[in-house]
Amino acid sequence: MRLAGFGMRVVAASVTVGLLAPLARAFYLPGIAPHDYKIGEAVELQVNSLTPSLNAENKLESVLSFGYYDERFHFCQPEGGPKAVHESLGSILFGDRIYGSAFDLHMLKDTSCQVLCQQNIPGADAAFINDKIMKGYNYNWLIDGLPAATVKVDDRTEQQFYSVGFELGSSQAGQLVPHFHNHYEITVQYHTLDAVHHRVVGVVVTPASKNTVLPKDGTASCDAAEPMNLHEDRDNSVVFTYSVKWEASEKSWATRWDDYLHAVDPRIHWFSLINSMVIVVFLSAMLGLILMRTLHKDIARYNSDDAEDLQEDFGWKLVHGDVFRPPQRFELLAVILGSGYQLFWMVVTTLVIALLGFLSPSSRGSLTTAMLLLFIVYGFSAGYNSAHLCHSFGGLSLKRIIITTVLFVPGICWVVLMIINLCLVVAHSSAAAPIGTLLGVMALWFVVSIPLTVCGAYFGFRRKTIDPPVRVNQIPRQIPDQPWYLKPIPSALMGGILTFGAIFIELYFIMNSIWFHKVYYVFGFLFLVFCILVITTAEVTVLLTYFHLCAEDYR
Q1: Of 155-159, 223-227, 372-376, which has the strongest mean pLDDT?
Q2: 3-state helix/strand/coil string of 162-220
């Protein structure tokens, strides 16, 4: 009877689910929902800042970005002036300045040699543009959230992939006057859902330099063979033109970023992972050798009843009454440790969110925004751990630890940000953060981070303190002269080199994506490397602590 009753409940539940299933609707995360276009519907082309890349000599000569509508470029503006596009906080902080454009695109409507405008570029501005061409600057356009790209071929695998951006101009090594790209062949790939709806799944732009002459009737011919050279000793008349071609593609909307997220050589990431694991195995072997041979023998001798052996103590066994003595600047140590907890949990949470796929590359700046907001929220962790450790060391001023935690690491970050932003303003770079954005970050700090830090410090200070397992000697033990490799600077370098060696290859790819404004999305490798970094840091800490204690340095 019980079995029959259970079977009836299963059948009833199945029928209920079946009836409710048609009512269910899938949902998309914010900023990731697809846009379905109808034939002839306008498709907006947005423009972003021009960014530096490798020049003809394969060198990076600049790190500054410049706005697309910088008056020195003289690019065509839409009627009524350019209108800014709403951007996320992280996108603005990373230098994105996205605006509407004068390009006129319509779904499945091919156009040929459309005239944008004709501009007169003075010699001084021509020198500015030529300098940026020689330094390898790129256009950065967006259509339906997808960046306009250049098709390139991987030399190792001979596989085609999309490289974000396309060249402002072309120049060969030793060429005195570069060619300015003023004609754009825009190829938009689309995927057809049904007879009515279509989606954008790829954008490729092939720029060209054409010295086009605009007749009186306003219809230009893009067959000019002569390139467009900007002369720096006189004014230059430049005609900007473009063509649009729509190509059907079997690529679905869900996989449209695959060509942009191409890994140049996945074997390098695997080499990075193996390199990190070798370091971990080496450190683990050293740590295991110390624990098994030295500490095990000493602890066994301590557990014996032989008093004569105990009188022959040396090394780390002599400082057991001083090792738990509070350090000289324990408040600063507590603050640094609390901020370390804050950074650690911020990184862990960000990586987990990225691994789950919540940080889509189509949502520009989402990674930076998530990291910044998580850092602010985890101010609670910074205050809690700082106050708890400071109180355990004997600190009695809760107010002082709160002020130090709030100002030390965030204050240093804020000062560095202000200095960098001031330098960008002086250089007239578009990457300089607007004053409104800076005020917004400061408001988040005051309204969210500081109250959370105060709240965390209050609970951390009230938590039971960490009591040392042995009594601390009243008179500090004299510390003997230390060997050169155990002094602060060499010791810190040794610990830093080992941990840096575990992550330097993956760190190269991260910094490369930042400086060259590329998309980094290998979060699986990054998470594994981060786990190895945590293990390496813990083992290096244990080893260095053991070596210092063996030298009777308990500080």
Answers
A1: 372-376
A2: EEECEECEECCCCCCCCEECCEEEEEEEEEECCCCCEEEEEEEEEEECCCCCCCCCCCC
